[in-house]
Design goal:
37% helix, 3 domains, single chain, Rossmann fold, Alpha-Beta Plaits
Length: 265
């Protein structure tokens, strides 16, 4: 992340933001990027609007335009009520919102956020997630580093999993699921006794095993096989009333555990 925002020189290779080489076009890259580190520094003797106006000036925004821009990012981040509050009086969640407001001052195309939900209570995390969704709808490209994988699963189009500085996976949420056999299990519920359903499904060559878990059946397909409605067709044709059928999707936390080895530096 620090390489992408031009704070570090690449040790090797090249990196690009919006088609610009970060090593050769640093000034132009910085105008296109908004970077929010895990813990941002704040000026304790400033009020919220003063803090934002300071950064507006640092980005070269004309004086006559600053107030409107500051008011706009305060409204976007739901900090209007804190406009005149001292920065050091804000809660951790409010400070994270202020940090996001700061990086939006110059209307960057790309946001690079390091642990934006770190240290937040559940309500503040939900609010931060909704704010990121709104920025996505506005057309921003957002890169997020986080250890809260369940939240990334809800908002990300693409993910990258890194272990010891190397990518072990990079791609869309749809691409990671087939790789790990995420759709190879289906959860089924039938009306009444499930014994006949177990016998019928177990006899299918596409199915590896059928397990009973409470009121549900967990059906595991053989590698490479797809459901394609075979469970529903088999049960309905066999006279078994099907109540519920849902592919079991592996969570991003589980995918992380499968793809990594737990190696630390």
């Amino acid at each position: 992340m620090r390489i992408l925002v031009t704070l570090l020189e690449p040790t090797r290779g090249e990196a690009f933001i919006d088609g610009l080489n970060v090593s050769k076009k640093g000034k132009e890259v910085r105008r296109r990027v908004g970077y929010m580190p895990d813990f941002m520094g704040v000026y304790d003797d400033l009020k919220v609007f003063e803090y934002l106006e300071f950064f507006a000036a640092a980005f070269g925004i004309e004086y006559r335009k600053r107030k409107a821009i500051v008011d706009g990012v305060l409204e976007l981040t739901d900090l209007v009520s804190k406009r005149s509050a001292p920065v050091d009086s804000l809660s951790r969640g409010m400070q994270q919102r202020l940090g996001l407001a700061r990086v939006l001052i110059h209307d960057p195309k790309v946001l690079i956020l390091d642990e934006p939900a770190s240290g937040l209570d559940p309500r503040a995390r939900i609010e931060m997630r909704e704010l990121l969704r709104e920025l996505k709808r506005m057309g921003k490209t957002i890169m997020v580093s986080s250890h809260i994988l369940s939240e990334l699963e809800e908002i990300c189009d693409r993910i990258g999993i890194i272990e010891r500085g190397q990518f072990v996976f990079s791609g869309s949420m749809e691409e990671i699921r087939p790789r790990l056999g995420i759709h190879s299990k289906v959860r089924v519920k039938v009306l009444g006794d499930s014994t006949r359903a177990v016998e019928m499904l177990s006899a299918l060559p596409q199915i590896q095993k059928v397990e009973t878990t409470g009121d549900y059946l967990s059906v595991t397909f053989c590698d490479g096989e797809k459901t394609d409605g075979i469970i529903a067709r088999t049960l309905v044709h066999g006279g078994v009333d099907l109540v519920y059928l849902q592919p079991e999707q592996l969570k991003l936390d589980d995918a992380f555990l499968q793809l990594t080895k737990g190696i630390v530096h």
